[in-house]
Structure prediction request, 1297 residues.
Amino acid sequence: MSEAVKKEQPNVSVPTVTFTIDGQSVTVPKGTTVLQAARDIGIHIPTFCWHPQLKSVGACRMCYVEVEKMPKLMVSCMLDAMEGMVVYTNSDQVRQGRKAVIEFILINHPLDCPTCDKGGECDLQNLTFAHGFDDSRYDFKKYRFKEDDMTTTFDDKKIGPEIMLNRNRCILCYKCVRANKNAFGEYDLGAFERGNITQIDAVPGGEVNNPFSGNLVEICPVGALTNSDWRYKIRVWLTQTTPSICNFTSSGTNCTFYKEDHQNKIFRVTSRENESIDNGWIPDITRYGYQIINSPDRLQTPLIRKDGKQVKATWDEAIDYIAKKYTEIKESVGGVCIGGLISPSLDNRSLYSFSKMIRTVCKSNNIDFRGDYRMLPSSPDSPFGVLRSQPFSISAIDDSDVIVSFGSDLIHEHPNEYLRIRKAYNNTNPKIYSIMPYAVKSADVANIEYVYNPGTDESAVNAICLAAIEENVVDSALANDYLKKVLPSTLKDAVALCGLDEKDLRVLARSIADGKNITFLIGEIVTRSKSRDAISAALLNMNKLFGISSKGQISILARYANSKGAEKLGLLPDPIAPIKEILKKNFNGYPESEPRNTDEMMAHIRKEEIKGLFVFGSNPMMLYPDKEFIKESLDKLDFLVACDLFETETTESADVVLPLSGWAEYEGDYINLESICQTAKQAVKPNTDSKPAFEIIRLIAEKLEKSNFDSESLDKELADCLAVNTVIQFPDDFIEMKPQTEEIIDEYTLPIFIIDDAHHSGYLTEKSPSLNNFSAEAYLMMSEELAAKNNMKNGDSIRVESIVSKVILPVKISQSLDSDVLLVPRNFQSSPVTSLFMRKRRVDRVKISKVDA
Amino acid sequence: MHYSPVITNADIAAKDENLHLFQYVEDPKQCEIDTFVSRGGYKAWKKVLDSISREDLIETIKKSGLRGRGGAGFPTGLKWSFVPKDSPKARYLCCNADESEPGTCKDRVIMERDPHSIIEGMAIGSYAIGCHLMFIYIRGEFTHCIEKMEKAMEEAYAKGHLGKNIYGSGYDLDMIVHTGGGAYICGEETALLNSIEGERGQSRMRPPFPAIEGLYACPTIVNNVESLAAVPHIINRGAEWYASLGTEKSKGTKLFSLSGHVNRPGNFEVPLGFNLKDMIYSPDYGGGMLGDVPLKGVIPGGASTPMLLPDMIDVALDYESLQEKDSMLGSGAIIVFNENTCIVWVIKKLIHFFRHESCGKCTPCREGTGWLEQMINRIEAGQGQTGDLEKIEEVCGNILGRTICPLGDAAVMPIQSALRLYRDEWQYHIDHKKCMVKSNFEFK
Prediction:
């Protein structure tokens, strides 16, 4: 989609130059390097230090070309094409120059290819093969960084949880240091010493543990940086590749699975550049998240509860049992007594067939895919629904002149989009603003970071609008309308509520008003808030006042791999009308029962109106921010069917547990946050006795004598749903709004927010050993000031108490956090942090105290 | 702190008014702002702010023929004119005081003895390019210079020569004394800028040139101490006066740091075009060879410049004449060595320096200098092998002109010239496993 948009733009104003490469005449836009121009026409100029996403530095000198009328060899990565230039990329002089570079590089390189993991995909190996000598003229001892290395070639040094460094192999292209700093904004890797003993290393006392660190290994042109995930496991030429996409990011990061067919095992994941999505960088979650597929903890067979204990069963037994129990409940209770909860990370076919099963077999609208959000709205066109349905394009970030991130801790929620914003920051220097209830690391690229008081989200939005009105930068008629609907109506009052700086707000208001191409992205703070509709209403008002959507994009970003697909395929309890129409046609009717979302389902389970529940790939016990509420509900159920890759707290209370296949084990389509449909191909066959969700649903449905659950019919039916435009129109008028306040109870004063750890997403990734190397247990993240105030230091055990529960967590001090809030990751089963939360609260608050040793 | 004075020809300069840079350096009071002002200091700066437009100022410097004294000899006025006039970005001026070319010690004298002249020159240069924040990047080991410059800067602020609204002109100018970590490469202008930015001291590829995209990606001018110190004199006495000094193409005076086997090593200010032979043998300057041992060779412009044989030293010290002899004026560090000197040993010392100072960014210099050092060490130690000289020449050829910055060239040019001029001595080392000069010395 974004590709097409780009091509349509008129390209007339860009001046071009015409020149000659190896006799071919080339016309390129002014400012294109000779290297790029040559690559574009298929002439490969070798490089070590060049990377398409990084600024050229001309360090390796491998990309020499000869240019007529220029006395010296030129490095093509830094040579802009000029009119009439005559370039030779393969002349004798060029070949001699490259050969000399290879000779220089090999002086101290150990040439330990037989024991090097990079062997077979090593740039140095390949280019030596192409240009080098078969013998070295260097007859001295090679330099070694450690005395021990004089006898062996190994200098393996762990510089991060997953990264091993071999300094002897390093050819000092500096790509890792440059990428780490410029592309990822991380400073944990550097170069030390100088001359021929220059070495790459982690900063003193630190380690390379940032959420993008795996990319450093991937871009290393030699075997200097390797990761423990891949080291000494297999030779690259024995593997086969499968194109796939990430199951943990909502942008559907493109990646490649390296697997070995005989062992039926995946060995690693690398990037697969898709310019419109990921620019060739993948976050560590994508890179190491695949390991859950290989996990020995995977559910091996179906389990049936017998005499209070879950025992192994065959698929036939399990399906028979489900059908039997289902019929019993249906007959004894009657009415709409079954509900369904599914994961938004499953593929389209699974999602659609789940909806089909719940709606046609159970005749129920008790269905939802949001197992970790409290107090969801029911109607599809709520203000939240409107903002959520708006289109979003990742590549449009590149051309934005104003980028606002509202309520999103980007690195943790949307790592690709963060890198995209960083790219814009490096290339076009747009105005970037971050607005959050607490300070975040991703705001390091922001011109101004706005941190408002937790729970005053809509006042913060209102304050921006009021600042614009006071600054006179918005239409005065609109401003008048706005003021009639909104309280407070003076900037001073709004500022008093949200605690933002008035002067900064004016800057922001001006920037949004002046912006020509705005990207306004909204994140999980809004989605997870109980007051998401009120905040969304404020944002809709803001959109109308500034006209943001008419000059850019504004959207609440989808969070999971197929959230968009779930919305489009009718997995909401009450889908929008056009979707409902199609479902009605496909299902030959549509259940008339009350639509109930996750909250309402749980409430009705407690009232014993819902007796049976299907949970597919979802773990509300762990993720829903009110553990007690879910636990009480699930305990009340007569019958719970839970499908998952692993045993979870939810499967523990299930009557039937079915092993689910992971996304790498079958082919599935996923719709990313841009509404682009992408396919994850099957990389390996299921190792356990697991099945994809749509297969399980087909078995159940067929057992209950329902047909048309085969893949072919499903695909045909769901294609109609996907064709529907699900964007909901913005409301015509401003929405009335007044600030909501929530009282603070007793001594529970500190606001606490749930986050995803930077190396985890949801509840599955803790089964990935590599990701656990970065972070394996829950923690209580706080600012340095707060820790000092409470006399706490890193690692101290802290009792965190809310009104309902208490949890003991170790302290983790964050450098980027600077306000009095606490953050807890929800990704670790061992620490039930969601038990601290209450679904009816807007901002959860706790008190903390040190556990005495 | 111990401080050993450097010989200068201040006495000659004091008599000859044309020798402006060293006119007062022998007077310790010259460091103090009152003395400096009483001798006409900051007059040029005031004159510039009062009555000279930027265009006229640059034109004056162009007309004076002042060329960069750091080594490259690029016309200073022309360099200033490269700063884009319509750029909305800030502009910066950096005074390059990272004097670390072996043999060069001239800037240090000005910093220690006449620091205000540098500040005044920097200020005028800043005005010429529209800069409001200027830096002086001083070599880290020059602690004495750093103290002097910082004190001078404070005085200049206190007396209103720097700061806001200078002399009521509305022009603001601030100054930062930035100290390096003692890396030779940081004297290279792009590495210097990286160092100020807090990056590794590694040079950047050009283009973009600093005048377009330098410090913090803003237009930046980097000038040598000596060049800037000359600027106030040009303003005070006129471009014609300055242009009347020196030769047709190399105008003005130049500081030379004479070292090695001469009777009077030291810093000397002479008009460009001064004869090298006179520099070595005249009693007012070098005073002849130490102990009357005959001359073997001269490095005329700092460690990185090709050598001259004794029969080549009747040459004018200016940019063009030395070029005709396949050498360079460089930074003006004349290193003289007598016949008791082993040329292989000289080169060994030089390549050790360049290997040690190579920044490690681009491959040929990083790896090549290390290889060269090993080969030359071997020859010097009497273990050279047949073919080593050819190999050295080839490696030199693979470095020369193939690196990001001139350090690579600087490392190989003296080697190439020594191989060309003293080939027999190298060959002797290899063939006889010992040194020709110290032929009675037996290697183990």
